[in-house]
Design a protein that fits this description.
Blueprint lengths: L1 H19 L6 E4 L5 E4 L4 E6 L4 E4 L8 E6 L5 E7 L3 E9 L7 E3 L7 E2 L8 H26 L8 E4 L2 E11 L2 E10 L5 E14 L5 E7 L3 E3 L4 E2 L4 E9 L7 E9 L6 E5 L1 H5 L3
Parallel strand pairs: 1-7, 2-8
Antiparallel strand pairs: 2-5, 3-6, 4-5, 6-7, 7-9, 10-11, 11-12, 12-17, 13-14, 13-16, 13-18, 15-17, 18-19
Length: 277
């Protein structure tokens, strides 16, 4: 009887200790001369700091995956982030004059909880959701990396009425092709984007020449704007399943203006598609 009571007591104490265990928060350092960027797996819906000597900025009008942190000398504080899907992230933030890290890529697993309880019916559903989240996170991380690089695949450019469309780079990674596309507005009017499509065109030769066009759907888009202001240069990434094309086919990047006529069609030769970086 005594042994049974002792075993039950040990189990209760262990369970209580486990329930009281809290997740240790990571510390992020910032200063007033550099931007510290935090990239999240879902767009940021809300970001709050606990002290005025820390400032966290993010796009409040159009939800984006990253925010910027700056700090002035003072006591440590905390940063609370809520993503669009309700995931909550919390950090200790401190001022440091010299920074050794400027970019943080946050995984979904580092979330401390969710605004609402998430009910998962089966293990299979959980595995699928985790796979999707991990893929989106990787696409976002690698796309951000490509936008920072200055690598080019060649001069692939088209211009119309001071609007310049160019394919800066084509990169093969794992099972996908990443298209780094640049839109430059050299005009005095803002450019409202209606759509940006990638299509494959095949020219049928012979007496009856015809053109077959097949729209290619990207599996992920990164940093696609709705408007390019006058004088602004925007870079974005389209992620496509890997493919190759024969000599009589070509890729066409079609840029269409909303309520305007400054449309462009940029033709990309098979040699660039079949020989990516």
């Amino acid at each position: 009887m005594k042994n049974s009571v002792l075993i039950i007591a040990v189990i209760c104490i262990s369970a209580f200790a486990k329930a009281q265990t809290t997740k240790v928060l990571d510390t992020i350092y910032a200063n007033d001369t550099k931007n510290v960027a935090l990239f999240f797996p879902e767009p940021i819906r809300q970001g709050v700091t606990g002290s005025d000597n820390f400032v966290f900025t993010y796009n409040r009008e159009k939800e984006q995956y990253f925010g910027l942190l700056q700090a002035t000398p003072g006591k440590e504080s905390n940063l609370l982030i809520i993503n669009r899907n309700g995931a909550i992230f919390s950090y200790i933030i401190r001022y440091r004059k010299q920074l050794s890290k400027l970019n943080y890529f946050v995984s979904q697993s580092s979330s401390i909880g969710n605004e609402k309880p998430i009910i998962i019916d089966t293990t299979e559903v959980t595995e699928v959701e985790n796979l999707v989240d991990n893929s989106r996170f990787y696409y976002t991380k690698f796309s951000s990396y490509l936008l920072e690089r200055k690598q080019r695949i060649g001069t692939i450019q088209k211009r119309n009425e001071s609007i310049v469309l160019s394919v800066e780079n084509i990169v093969f990674d794992k099972e996908e092709l990443y298209f780094v596309i640049q839109i430059e507005n050299k005009s005095s009017l803002d450019y409202d984007l209606n759509f940006l499509n990638l299509s494959l065109e095949t020219t049928q030769k012979g007496k009856r020449k015809s053109l077959q066009k097949l729209l290619q759907e990207p599996i992920f888009k990164h940093n696609v704007p709705s408007r390019i202001a006058e004088g602004e240069v925007v870079k974005l990434v389209y992620v496509m399943p890997k493919f190759s094309i024969i000599n009589d086919r070509r890729l066409v990047v079609e840029l269409n203006e909303k309520n305007g006529e400054r449309d462009l069609k940029l033709k990309v030769s098979h040699k660039y598609i079949n020989n990516p970086n």
